[in-house]
UniProtKB/TrEMBL annotation:
GO terms for biological process: immune response. PANTHER family: INTERFERON-INDUCED PROTEIN 44, INTERFERON-INDUCED PROTEIN 44-LIKE. The lineage of its organism: Eukaryota, Metazoa, Chordata, Craniata, Vertebrata. This is Interferon-induced protein 44-like. It comes from the Eukaryota.
Amino acid sequence: MEAARDKYNIFPPSSTFAVSKPPVAVSAAITAPNLFGAPSVVKDAPNPFALGFPVRSKVNDQVKKEMISTKVSGNLGSGEEMDVSTQQMTNGSFKFGTPSKLESPWRDVEWTEARRSSLMKTVSSHRPSCNEMTETRVLLLGPVGSGKSSFISSVQSVFNGRVTNRAMVGSSPNSFTKKLQSFNIRGQKGEDVPRLVLCDIMGLSEQEMTGLTLHDILSVIKGHVPEGHKFSPDQPVRPETEGYVKWPGLKDKIHCVAFVVDASKILKYPKGTSTIFKQLREHISDLGVHQVALLTHIDQLSPDTAKDVTHVYRSSLIRDMMSKAGELLGMSTSYIVPVQNYASELDVDVNMDVLLLSAVDHIMQYADLYFQDHTGKAETDIFEDMA
């Protein structure tokens, strides 16, 4: 049993992701570390990062104390942003202070129909910069409820010309997506569509034994995981898994990872989130895969932006949350773009489309770096996977 477990524990014993030995008898099922959840039998382990996040109920008070002098949005309907110390937070609500709004945008965007059309043409005509590839595969990765599935549906809506919910979205604290699903973005009949595949997997969870393992995430990126595979933390992907891709080619692998984080929850994520994200990024980088990030739910931060998305780059709060997201993920803000997904809307909006298409273009640029790095290396990659 120990030998089997060690085979699927991809970290050395000293790693913060190493699996602790359970103090009770276990079944023959092979276990793997859960990124965002800890089995109750080891909840008192001395290292809080050994198996994932601590329980949220033990974190809230500490998080509130640490969130000092942070800018938060004004009360609903005010159309303004306020400076406030989050120590004023009570039961999830905020008290508000003096208005704060930037006179000039911190990123320049042309909010016009012409810009939307230009971006549509750029994204639709994009082809992988590798002759043997016909499409770009992007993995969306983030906590439960961060907006991964909503982003897929929103991008599809842009190309459909109407709001659709192609990737089903849930509202429970547990991940609605349970398996690997790949979505080819489709367009209206007769129109060019991007050779883009957005891959959705279950969210990283804070709940016990419900989230992804790091081993499974890396297996998806390497191209070993079959389409439709249902994830289970106590049954990691392995060669015996049904449909396991033993010798994945470039077409099976992930070419870019897009982290998705909820702007309205960045200051509420449990302590240790940053450590997990940074270690996750380190392992993904070791595979030669570039990463970007999407900052979602920006409308929940700024009433101005909720009413008119063109205010996104005039919001000092969203700018500050971009910096917080960079700290959380361990990446420069130049890799991060804000997005506003379609939620209650019935019709598409030019300005929301511009923001969404800009994000897709951003992702594809970094995916191209992967192809540039791996052109002509297909055979080498296979032998590396064999090692």
